[in-house]
Batch of 3 targets.
Target 1
Amino acid sequence: MKTKKILAGAVTLFAAVTLAACSNGSNKDIVTMKGNTINVSEFYDRVKTNQQAQQVLLSMVISDVFEQQYGKEVSSKDVDKAYDEMANRLGDSFAGALSSAGLTEETYKQQIRTNKLVEFAVKEAAEKELTDDAYKAAYDAYTPEVTAQIIKLADEAKANEVLAQAQAEGADFAQLAKDNSTDAETKANGGTVKFDSTSTTVPNEVKTAVFALNDGQVGASVVKSVNLSNYQVSYYVVKLNSKSEKAADWKEYKDILKDSFIKSKQADAAYVKNVISEAFKKANVKVKDQAFQSILSQYITTGDASSSSSSEASSSETSSSSETQESSSDK
């Protein structure tokens, strides 16, 4: 489902409430019954190894760290705009999507805000790497805008049938698109679309196929593409109408290349991880409860994660026990 992709990273409200309650740091009773009582400390010890609870803590740490370092860079208007855009995109299914992801309006807006703070940090880091050499490398890989026509189909056999018709002498590609394409955005205008190598309006497979054609040429074979958000397979019949001549000076495309470079870094999981790691290092993030070391170790070094344990080991056994209990209650 698209909503799973859109709301990726969401955690259940149960897990969120669990850590929020335990963060009070008290042994307040949660449930009493004949012969037994369950208090906050006992509950915390039981749920802290739960994967969802650990993910909540990671989200909390990322949110707090980036709020402190970049909070002024994202306004409430930015968050509200992104929220409204998603609500409009999903329409009547939006409320259900939030509910199934364990989110409320407030928690989803917080998630949006955190994502935007991280995006800004990645953008800032990427801009520092935009040297002339980086621009020139991006320019070498860049293909200027082309005008093409596409026919999108859901069935491969049907796509091959339409391809044969499109390759026939005197074929009316525009009419074939109007009669057969499942792409609502291009069908009415005969499948006409404009894009360059940085565009996201068409799949990468379609771009690659079109860029290899000559003006007026129809692709030799059907282009297969998989939408990774829902794993839906689509088949394309493509035609190149015209190419734009590439300017000799990369500076002609500076804004386009910059935007493309930044977006590529924001989509690079390893790069984003490094940015988060640097932010954690600057914030001096350390793990005080070893139950959470694994979930945070991807962003902080083992030394940072275990520094408190090493310090405790050098103290007396009594002092170590006392500090551990204090750490647990702080949660």
Target 2
Amino acid sequence: MIPICTTVDGYKARRSIFKSEGHRIALVPTLGALHDGHLKLMEHAQKLADRLVVSIFVNPKQFNDEEDLIKYPRPLQQDIHLLNQLGIDLLFLPSSAEMYPAGHAETIDVELSHLTSPLEGRYRPGHFDGVIAVVHRLLDIIEPDFLVMGQKDYQQLTIIREMIKRLGLPVDLVAHPTIREADGLAMSSRNVRLSSKARKQAPAIYRILQKAKALKDQYSPAEAVAKCIIELDERIFRVDYFKIVDTDSLKPLTSWRMQGKNLVCVAAWLGDVRLIDNIIV
């Protein structure tokens, strides 16, 4: 069985052993409800470091919708089973009281509104404040050499990269490509909430991202966006946004940039499940 630490002090005792033995630590932070996408991140993290720490914490601060927090799946025993099979070195499983003790700063003093306001920020106010707070707190507790995160949450990845840079934190952020099902749907803990009918429709979101890429040589970003939104609407998606933005600034593009600098991103509802995805073009 993998060691499980539920307190900060308990983890710090383990961390002291890791450090005294000269081991490098990788952290994969999660909200639980683990799937193959998470496991691929962890396998990659194991190659980077000597010790892999995985955290499971359903962070209330990053849920702007109370109903979404309540509905978020929490199959803890299944998660522990998967982590045992993978052979991680430690599971950090804190309570809210451990993560946010009395007197702990509610927010992190770093100005990132230019990255937190667009895209997801427009539809999930306060979400990224919660993400910044929890990741900063985890980095402070775990003291990893590597922080491994997925590209599916691209805006989150960009924000955390900038936070690390601005605060001069001693950690390397490693981005891992989005892991997809065989039909192209990006793996997500929320996919289990899709009805069987919706699950069959959901891969269209990735195909339409690919369509935007195919339109690059003939149409401007704005024209490509318009065509893709029409197709999403026709397929019964309720679109929050479909944008083509700069990969660094997240600002909308009026013309295509060089290869690898265009982010095509989408958030859309299928029934009562909100899906996000992106590709770099």
Target 3
Amino acid sequence: MLRRVAGWLLALLLLGGTAGVLSRYVDLPSRLLAVVQSLVPLWCVLVVVATLAATWRHRRLAVAGLVPSVVALALLGAPYLRRTVPPGPGALTVMSANLEFGQADATQVVAAVQAHDVAVLVLLEVTPDAVRRLSAAGLDGLLPATAGSAEPGAEGSLVRSRWPLTALADGDGPAGTPSAFRQPLVRVQRPGAPFVLQAVHPLPPTAWEPQWRTSLTRLAELRRARPTDEPLVLAGDFNATDDHPLFRRVADGMSDVARDAGEGWAPTWPQDADVPPFARIDHVLVRGFSTVAAGTVHLDGTDHAAAWGTVR
């Protein structure tokens, strides 16, 4: 009796886990689906564990789980494969930090900029008070150029840079994007090698799934519209993982520096919450660059880890 109950339980776990894994290939307008897709690494682990458990006394079930387990292991292993180049002349570091209503520890943000020699910093959910605290902590001397705007609440976004910035859009994100968050598009005037950077912060799918879909779709259109020989960086809080088909559409033809650096799962959200971090939604995507290194930095006062990438 217990063996039969255990078999049914393992079958349900394997079936549910497999459905979760396969959800990453489904592109439908659904808030629930977006949430399920954000948990794909956990579904992968569930499939593998259920299959291994079934090998003890449920061999047929283990055989049924073989193919799903191979797919799950491939998805889990891919982010650990390194595709980096050695450091060299012209290397630069881009960092993105969501300050969560401007509450992040400004001293830690500036320390991270110094520790990683950050040349361009994307600040999201940046408030006027956060700007004052960052200035007092010494950010102005490190990254004097600025574009975008600080706003109360979660709407503000700034790009801070070692080099001059030229605004290419008014800060509302890709043309026509229905987002309450500012998303400045700028040209970073790096001497001899300028590049374009889009700060990214669409509305989250948990509450605004239609706007989230439209925002990421427009972001993919922006990426396609930019000349392919023009170096391009998309950095910010995408509110999406690489298990969301819409994110993969945005990232098509670009390199995710965290994946190139073999950072693995490395979830960035939520930090310091009742549940451990489970979703990597903060990204630095590049085109026209090769990845040297990448990583994350924990910041007190915010539910996001800062994401950074060094490229050349």
